[in-house]
Amino acid sequence: MLALPNLPHTSTPEGLDETCNVVLRHWGDPTELDFEAQPHWDLAENLGIIDFQRGVKLSGSRFYTLHGYGARLERAIISWMLDLHGGEHGYTEVALPILVRREIMEGSGNLPLFADNLYHDEEDDLWLIPTAEVPVTNLHRDEILSSDELPLCYVAHTPCFRREKAAAGRDTRGIKRVHQFNKVEMYKFVEPDTSFDELEALLGNAETVCQRLDLPYRILQLCAGDISFPSAKSYDIEVWAAGSQEWLEVSSCSNCTDFQARRANVRYRPAVGERPRFVHTLNGSGLALPRVIIAILENNQQPDGSVVIPEVLRPYTGFDTIPAK
């Protein structure tokens, strides 16, 4: 039973793979620069803010180090996103372990099928999380919540670790696809009757991040063959990157209905005296950092090689421009 995926919702489009995903809408126009735009791997190295060679020296392929303005920019984005979701959007911030037990990975749906994409300490049988979704799913494991507590909305920043075996040979340049990255994750435990409305609200929260950063984006509804193992319905947000001339996924927002709740045994009691029911769980990136950094650098680069920082981040960065060397 643990190997069976969730059932797609009736509103999820039919299709076998990403070619059948449906573009629902766009926000903003793809950034067009009146000079030859640099991809982020050249731009960032010229600015001295990302060092790919030293990342490889320390840990091997698909690792990198951030320096100076780059490290400060990433820290600023994380802090701003946490403040936005915790303040305006009403999520409760949580700080979580990044090593979890086997049954925690099973609860979220990452085990047993996807062990090859996970980093594992065999001696202690602890697993590095690929997303904060894993520990948050299990925060209320084996609990019966009251209906008054719902919805429970959490936001967390964690490093994420993925072996990316399925992506061997793809996206090898830059920081688009790496083994370790930072992500801010939104997560909801809700009553079943409200979960699809809550999915739209979750998507809206992720869209707000893109809009405040002035990043042009598009919304895709994923087809049945492209939604994740635990999901019944999913949307992706892809932002435009002017240097590499491509759409980059920065968020995937999903309603997992009661799939994860059954595996982790998270229930609620609708009313006094009634039998407990499984909650519905929802998750969405709010957002994933490397591709946000790519879009900020590539869309806001200047002819002299400097980069202008989005206005909302300046109180957090302490600078409004990354100067050219």
UniProtKB/TrEMBL annotation:
PROSITE patterns: AA_TRNA_LIGASE_II
UniProt keywords, alphabetically: Aminoacyl-tRNA synthetase, ATP-binding, Cytoplasm, Ligase, Nucleotide-binding, Protein biosynthesis
Matching Pfam families: tRNA-synt_2b (PF00587)
Reactions that this protein is recorded to catalyse: tRNA(Sec) + L-serine + ATP = L-seryl-tRNA(Sec) + AMP + diphosphate + H(+); tRNA(Ser) + L-serine + ATP = L-seryl-tRNA(Ser) + AMP + diphosphate + H(+)
Start and end residues of each Aminoacyl-transfer RNA synthetases class-II family profile domain: 88-310
Localization: Cytoplasm
Residue stretches spanning the membrane: none
Superkingdom in the source lineage: Eukaryota
GO annotation terms (biological process): seryl-tRNA aminoacylation
GO MF annotation terms: ATP binding; serine-tRNA ligase activity
Annotated metabolic or biological route of this protein: Aminoacyl-tRNA biosynthesis; selenocysteinyl-tRNA(Sec) biosynthesis; L-seryl-tRNA(Sec) from L-serine and tRNA(Sec): step 1/1
EC number: 6.1.1.11
Keyword Cytoplasm part of the UniProt annotation: yes
GO CC term, one of those recorded: cytoplasm
InterPro entries, per database record: aa-tRNA-synt_IIb, aa-tRNA-synth_II, aa-tRNA-synth_II/BPL/LPL, Ser-tRNA-ligase_type_1, SerRS_core
UniProt-listed CDD domains: SerRS_core
Protein name: serine--tRNA ligase
Species of the source: Geodia barretti (Barrett's horny sponge)
